[in-house]
Task: inverse folding
């Protein structure tokens, strides 16, 4: 009996040792990847890789690695190797030259976890991406944007009226007033919905969209997927997604209703919006399937239309309000440069003249100011592409399936490329300086850049011009200078500024 207890104990211990050994092997298995390629990088932890270094901010981690390892290094998000690249020739290949043949796709997204966003233009791959992207590009020509401009103009005026009701002595949390503006413009331009969240903060659609953004780098789901990628599919099947499911369901059912109303109204749409343009080019699911195998087809299926509408709103809302927040902070902390921009605006629109699309698009200094703000505080501090077939670049063999990233935050502050990179100097973007496009790409670059780039710039310019026609933007007691960012590249303290009304004197 004693013998049988001992033998069963030894079997149990053998199993424990085996499981621990297998777990350990699983935990460290991928970490020879960069050694084989001869690429330097920080030492990874079992299971976590270098992921825990993001706690201090991934942009700070990227900066440290650049200083230590040079222009090419390797890191690990859990078990996933990421080749970090700051070499200009390699960037050219990744973003433009070899985009269609090798670097077509973004980071692999588990489609079940992506939920309804699985066929959004930012997620889809290869031929499907080409078809969807090709169907969307015509919506962002200057002709189309000119038609959509009145929407931005109307909401810009509402934004100013709302600000005029506030006490000019009070500091204003910038994101709190800019987020509703960008939400209203983007939602209205996408599907002609009158939300008016500028004046109605309790709008349910707004509340649900905000809720969808409440997730953290270190959320349990994200950590589990990073450490144990094979669980992503299981979590997806259990109905768990990265975004709040109830909010996503509410958002999608709202979109479905809006789309059905668009489709049934036989009269020509009173106003151009992106949803209306997509419905005009709707194709059947069968045609989409055919498009992958035979001749190229343009157009989107019913579900793809809903997905693009969602991504327009989600991507447009958050990125625009964040970019504008950083921009106003930079103008408030550089009053001399703000005065220079005000001069340009007053000359283009004398005596508070109405803002027109054509004149707005001809302004030069505002472009420089926006570019310089996006260089110092980029909306996309990293760009990523997956290598879909083995390629040799700069003497390094990049195996098929490798995720390649360009740490743009580091690129835009490289003293070898930018003089006094920590300073806010819009003039560096003047036409005489002829900046190399591979050193500055705030909206990405090449065929897979941000499809809504021109739309985003238009709605930002509208609000900045109207703001500066009416107010001076100033720092106040609550303004945190210099701005501090958390690990998620968001301000640790809400950016708070004062809007002081301008007294318009006729010269």
Result:
């Amino acid at each position: 009996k004693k013998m049988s207890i001992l033998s069963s104990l030894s079997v149990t211990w053998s199993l424990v040792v085996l499981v621990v050994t297998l777990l350990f092997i699983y935990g460290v298995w991928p970490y020879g990847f960069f050694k084989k390629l001869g690429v330097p990088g920080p030492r990874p932890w079992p299971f976590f890789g270098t992921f825990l270094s993001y706690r201090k901010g991934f942009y700070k981690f990227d900066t440290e690695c650049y200083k230590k390892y040079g222009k090419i290094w390797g890191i690990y998000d859990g078990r996933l190797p990421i080749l970090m690249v700051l070499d200009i020739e390699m960037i050219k290949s990744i973003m433009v030259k070899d985009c269609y043949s090798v670097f077509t796709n973004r980071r692999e997204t588990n489609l079940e976890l992506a939920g309804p966003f699985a066929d959004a233009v930012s997620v889809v791959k290869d031929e499907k991406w080409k078809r969807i992207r090709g169907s969307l590009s015509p919506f962002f020509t200057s002709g189309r944007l000119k038609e959509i401009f009145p929407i931005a103009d109307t909401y810009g005026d509402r934004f100013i009226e709302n600000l005029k009701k506030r006490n000019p002595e009070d500091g204003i949390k910038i994101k709190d007033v800019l987020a509703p503006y960008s939400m209203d413009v983007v939602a209205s331009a996408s599907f002609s919905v009158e939300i008016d969240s500028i004046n109605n903060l309790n709008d349910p659609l707004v509340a649900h969209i905000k809720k969808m953004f409440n997730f953290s780098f270190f959320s349990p789901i994200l950590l589990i997927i990073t450490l144990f990628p094979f669980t992503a599919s299981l979590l997806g099947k259990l109905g768990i997604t990265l975004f709040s499911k109830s909010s996503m369901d509410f958002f999608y059912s709202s979109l479905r209703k809006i789309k059905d109303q668009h489709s049934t109204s036989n009269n020509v749409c009173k106003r151009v919006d992106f949803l209306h343009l997509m419905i005009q080019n709707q194709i059947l699911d069968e045609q989409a399937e055919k498009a992958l195998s035979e001749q190229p087809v343009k157009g989107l299926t019913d579900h793809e239309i809903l997905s693009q509408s969602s991504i327009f709103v989600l991507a447009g809302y958050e990125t625009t309000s964040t970019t504008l927040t950083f921009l106003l902070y930079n103008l408030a902390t550089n009053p001399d440069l703000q005065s220079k921009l005000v001069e340009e605006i007053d000359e283009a629109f004398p005596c508070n003249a109405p803002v027109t699309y054509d004149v707005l698009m001809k302004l030069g200094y505002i472009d420089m100011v926006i570019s310089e703000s996006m260089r110092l505080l980029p909306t996309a501090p990293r760009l990523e592409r997956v290598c879909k077939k083995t390629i040799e670049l700069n003497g390094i063999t990049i195996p098929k399936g490798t995720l390649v990233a360009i740490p743009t935050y580091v690129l835009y502050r490289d003293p070898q490329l930018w003089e006094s990179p920590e300073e806010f100097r819009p003039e560096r973007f003047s036409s005489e300086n002829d900046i190399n496009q591979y050193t500055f790409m705030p909206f990405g670059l090449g065929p897979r850049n941000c499809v809504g780039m021109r739309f985003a710039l238009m709605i930002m310019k509208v609000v900045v011009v109207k703001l500066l026609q009416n107010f001076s933007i100033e720092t106040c007691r609550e303004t945190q200078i210099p701005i501090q960012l958390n690990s998620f590249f968001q301000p640790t303290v809400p950016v708070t500024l004062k809007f002081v009304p301008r007294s318009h004197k006729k010269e």
Q: What stands out?
A: The first strand starts at residue 72 and ends at 77. The two ends are 106 Å apart (CA to CA).
